[in-house]
Amino acid sequence: MQQARETAPAGPDVTTTVRQPGLLLTDHYFDVPLDHKAPEGELIRLYAREVVAGDTAGTRRDQLPWLVYLQGGPGFGADRPVGRSGWLDRALEEYRVLLLDQRGTGRSTPATRQTLPLRGTPERQADYLAHFRADAIVRDCELIRRRLTGGRPWTVLGQSFGGFCAVSYLSYAPEGLDTALITGGLPALDCGTGADAVYRAAYPRMERKTLAHYARYPGDAAAVRTIVRHLAAHDEVLPDGTTLTPAAFQQLGILLGTGDGSHHLHYLLEDAFAPTPDGPRLNDAFRERVAAVLSRAASPLYTLLHESIYAQDGTATHWSAHRIRAEFPRFDAEKAVAGDHPVLLTGETVHPWMLETHAALRPLRRTVELLAERTGWGPLYDPERLARNTVPVAAAIYHDDLYVDTAQSLDTARAIRGLRTWVTDEFEHDGVRTGGHRVLDRLLRLARDEAP
C-alpha cells in the first residue's frame, strides 16, 4: 500500500533543454496530489515537454503566452514532436507550447499491467484509477499553470478526449483559461445521457463507415468474410499473445475514424494469408500489423477508463458498449457470414471478452471488472456554468465523426455560451494531425472573431 506523500518515480527530477531542427524542447516535472480533494495525501508525478521555436531568444521566450495541449484517449501520452510541422508549427508562431503527459501516461507516473500491481489488490487498483478522469486532469493543469505562468491564464487545445477535458476546464476552472480550442472533442453534457446513449449513436456510425469502406474497396468485403470464416474455425494468436477471434478482428474498424485509415485497412487486408503445411494461415506480416492496431500494452487506460469518461450520474457503466451491441444484431460477424451479409467492423468499444483475448489486459481482468461495476461517478461538466461562459471558445466538429457523435456535439456547442463552431467533412477525427496548421489557424480566428 502506498504511503502518504509518496511519489512514484517517473523520470529524473532534472530540467533539461535539447534542440531539434526548428525547436527547443525543455523537460518539466510536477508533483501533484493523486486525489485533489486530499492534497496532503499521496503525490504522483507528471511530465510535460515545453516547446518553443528554435530561434526564440530567451527574453522573448519568457514573454510568450502559453498553450497547453491535451491529447486524446484516454490513456495516451502527448505528441512527441520531431521538427516543426502541423498544428505545432502554427502554435509556435505565437505561443510557448506545453505537451502534457496526462496522469498515468507517457513519462508521468505510469499506470500499466506492470505498475498497477504495485498498488496491491484489484480493489486498490480500481480505487487508484478512479482519480484519473477529466476532472483530475483539469486540477493537474491548474497546479501546473500557476507554477509556470505566475497565475496568468493560458490557452488550451484539446483533441478528442482532450476536448472533453477542455469542457471540464470551462466548467470548473474557467479562470485559468484565456481561450479554449477543441477539435473533435465536444462531449454530451446531460448527466442522464450516459454511456448507453453514446453507444446507441455510435453503432450506426460504425455501420456507415464500414459500408463506405466496402464501397471504396469492394473486394474488401469478401476478404473480411474469408478472414472471419477462418478465425471461426482456427485459433490464431498474434505476436503479442492476443487471441484473434472474429470479434477482436472486427475492432480493426477503429482505423476507419482517421483520414487515411480506410486505405491502411485495405492494404492490411489484401495479403492476409500464407500457405503452410497445415493449410492457409494468417501470415506473420498480417498478424504483426494487426497486433500493432489492437494492442493495449502501451495504453491500457484506453480500455480501463474508456467508459468512465461518459459516466456522470453515479451509476455503473456495466460494459455499456457490450450491452448496447446486443441491440444491433447486424454486428454479429459469424451470423453475417452464415447469412451472406456484410461483416460490420467496430470502433472504440470495450467488451468483457477483451480481458481474455487481449494479452496486456489479462493481468488486469479483475481491476477492469471493478471499474465497470463502479458506482458513484460524479459529474464532469457544469451545464449552468457553461451557459454563463465568458471564455472565448472555438470547436471543430467533424461531420459523421466515428468516435464522437456529431448531433451530441452540436447540442453541447449550443449549450456553451459564446462557443463558435466549424462543422466540416473535410477531415475525419484526426484533422488536427492531417490538417493541423490550417485547423488550428481556423480555430484561433474563430475564437478571436476574425475573418477566415
Describe this structure in words.
This protein is of the alpha/beta class and 452 residues long. It has helices at 58-63, 86-91, 122-129, 134-149, 161-172, 194-216, 219-233, 246-250, 261-269, 284-294, 301-304, 320-325, 333-338, 354-357, 365-373, 383-387, 406-415, 431-434, 436-447; strands spanning 17-20, 23-33, 43-53, 66-70, 96-101, 154-159, 177-183, 273-274, 281-282, 393-398, 419-424. Helix 2 (86-91) links the parallel strand 4 (66-70) and strand 5 (96-101). The chain folds into two domains: 17-191 and 379-447, Rossmann fold; 194-373, no CATH class. The relative contact order is 0.14. Helices cover 38% and strands 15% of the residues. The model is unreliable at 1-11 (pLDDT under 50). It contains 19 helices and eleven strands. The protein is globular, with a radius of gyration of 22 Å. The strands form two sheets. It has a nine-stranded mixed beta sheet, sandwiched between helices.
